[in-house]
Design a protein that fits this description.
Layout: H1 8-13, H2 18-30, H3 32-47, H4 52-72, H5 82-95, H6 103-106, H7 119-150, H8 158-176, H9 191-209, H10 216-227
Helix pairs in contact: 2-3, 2-9, 3-4, 4-7, 4-8, 5-7, 7-8, 8-9, 8-10, 9-10
């Protein structure tokens, strides 16, 4: 395979709109690795290589997940390792005699309410349930953290901005659902729908970048575009 010409991407970027150049420059200053993902997503949107829908969706997913950490300088806990946590719990429950060594061969156990669960066995289960709830709440909490950190004055009016925060979650969820292979090909995602969703993503991200210094009517316009 021939290598891309050194001036290929740079030449393509020179054709970006002013808004895209502004957004790209901001990301390059504040989150360089996410800037590459954004730039790559725009180029894929323009050039439509194979698997571009999933690759663009993956880039949007990473920007949504990681941008709050870059902006707030506070790193989140990351993805919950269910397999590792369940394995650890199983080992503890086997060790204290609550379950047999081989659950797959023993069938489902009867429930005996007279058996006390030792603290050693109960604690990791409760911790997993707690962390599961925290993980479920993380997208909206991260979105609020992103909006309030980009413009600290937003913390005082976060309830007013809640529709825009919810919109950020909804629009990025559209991409989250398409970030992994599920058997669908690019042709099954209409081109105009992909362009519309990406434009909404960019507009909302630009509002964050500009720290909401513009009037509230721009926020209303974002929601109006989302519902059109």
């Amino acid at each position: 395979m021939e290598a891309l010409p050194a001036d290929g991407p740079a030449a393509a970027v020179s054709e970006f709109s002013d808004d895209r150049l502004e957004l790209l420059a901001w990301l390059q200053r504040n989150a360089p690795s996410l800037a590459e993902l954004y730039e790559g997503a725009v180029l894929m949107l323009q050039n439509r290589p194979p698997a571009h829908v999933r690759l663009i969706a993956h880039s949007v997913r990473e920007i949504r997940n990681r941008l709050p950490d870059y902006v707030s300088k506070v790193k989140s806990g990351g993805r919950l390792d269910y397999t590792g946590r369940i394995d650890s719990i199983t080992k503890i429950w086997v060790r204290v005699g609550l379950v047999p060594n081989d659950l797959t061969a023993s069938g489902l156990l009867s429930i005996d309410t007279s058996v006390a669960v030792p603290r050693e066995a109960a604690k990791p289960v409760l911790e997993l349930l707690r962390d599961h709830e925290l993980a479920r709440a993380k997208p909206i909490d991260s979105a609020r953290r992103l909006f309030t950190t980009a413009a600290p004055e937003n913390a005082e009016v976060i309830e007013t901005l809640e529709p825009v925060v919810q919109h950020w979650i909804e629009i990025t969820n559209w991409f989250m659902k398409r970030a992994h292979d599920d058997g669908r090909c690019d042709a099954e995602c209409p081109r105009d729908e992909l362009e519309h969703q990406f434009a909404l993503f960019e507009k909302t991200l630009m509002a964050i970048v500009r720290q909401f210094y513009t009037a509230v009517d721009e926020l209303d316009q974002i929601l109006e575009d989302a519902n059109s």
